[in-house]
Amino acid sequence: MNTWKIVLSNLKNKPLYTFLSVFSLSISIALLLGVLQLDASVQNQFKNSLGNVDLVVGAKGSPLQLVLSSVLHVDNPTGNISYPEAIKLTRNPLIKNAAPISYGDNYKGYRIVGTTPAFDSFYAAEIATGTSPINSMEAVIGSEVAQKLGLQLGDTFKSAHGLTDEAIAAHDAEFKVVGIYKKSYKVLDRLIITTLESIWDVHDHDEHEEHEHEEAHQHETKEVTSLLLSFRSPVGLLTTPRMINEKTNMQAALPKFELDRLFKFTGIGIQAISWIAYIILIISCITIFISLYKMVKERAFDLALMRTYGASNLKISTIIALEGICIVVLSLLIGFALSQLGLHFVFTILKSSLQQDIMPTLPLQSFLYTVILILAVILIGIAMAIVPLFKMNISKILSDEK
């Protein structure tokens, strides 16, 4: 009988041990790999959605809320700021790019954002079909919006006040779809982009129909939600935020800094789950060690007979080690499959809440480090279980059995 047949026979003769070892080890592997990939995917998704936005300027309030609402579009705005005051900031020679944005309406839950052509450059946006909005009431939609709502070029729709699809008060004016963005896995995928004039016209039409002749003075009294900025050099990033916060009635927030703060808080939960997975991994290692060690002790007579028939310590050690390795390899395969299944479920939930596909990110270096760590811990347990073989007194074991 060859080595592999002996190994498989031993595993079949201990179905409960094999099942419990594979089950516990698979759970710990699934948790470790799943949490690692989930954390990397979510962080990458949020950081990717920041685009090239170095600074966001808005109304006084929470800087994190300002970033979440104006850059990631997952929160309510802190308020509005004066459009003329915001434009004054863009005259700073250190500023490379600036895009005022205004929002507050939605279409079936997807936010409608009024902005300028400069907005696309923050996200390296590309139009798949059609053109960018130029005239009032023209809109270009994200790939997710087009897919979920079935909108095509030339279609029209009416916006509703508010940022959720629960809003029931629709405006009278109609938007026309003139373009569709390419899929980018950025926040752009779930936005409806139009001109600033479109947002102003929609609300002016509803609230001030009798004052349409004042269009020439429109920009002097208009407001926007926030202003997105990028800088030519780090100098602008060091000096501009303090100047805005201290000398204006607006606030400046650094998206990357605020996201790092957010991830520090969420990282506590990630670490807690990881530690639980490591504890399960250690328990699994101990279980495999005890089982293999017990097997060596209980089958001492059989192993001694194998030695008398010419089997070396290396041969017997190989058989025992292969039993443990088979369990580890099977657990790795099942654990990886469980992690991907769990991630698919989590990503589906996140897609429903964020209205956007999340690009799975596999941090290869961390992934390999985790797999190597798992293998190292288990192999140490296997090695410890084999130690009694080299201390076995064959003659004493055979004489005791007689």
Characterise this structure.
The chain has two domains: 3-47 and 269-401, no CATH class; 55-253, no CATH class. Helices cover 58% and strands 17% of the residues. It contains 14 helices and twelve strands. The protein has helices at 3-12, 15-49, 63-70, 83-89, 118-122, 143-149, 196-207, 218-221, 234-247, 255-298, 300-308, 313-354, 364-390, 394-401, and strands at 55-59, 81-82, 95-107, 110-115, 127-130, 138-141, 156-161, 170-181, 192-195, 223-224, 226-231, 250-253. The longest helix has 44 residues, at 255-298. The relative contact order is 0.18.
SSE order: HHEHEHEEHEEHEEEHHEEHEHHHHH
Overall morphology: elongated
The percent of residues in helical segments reads 55-70%
The number of domains is: 2
Work out the number of β strands: 12
Structural class: alpha+beta
Rg over alpha carbons = 31 Å
Give the overall pLDDT as a whole number. Answer: 82
Distance between the termini: 25 Å
Q: How many individual helices?
A: 14
Beta fraction: 15-25%
What composes the largest sheet?
6 strands, mixed, barrel
Low-confidence stretches: 209-217
User: Biggest sheet, strands in spatial order?
Assistant: 3-4-9-6-8-7
Transmembrane segments: 16-38, 272-293, 314-347, 367-390
Protein name: Permease
Domain ABC3 transporter permease C-terminal: 276-394
Pfam families: FtsX, MacB_PCD
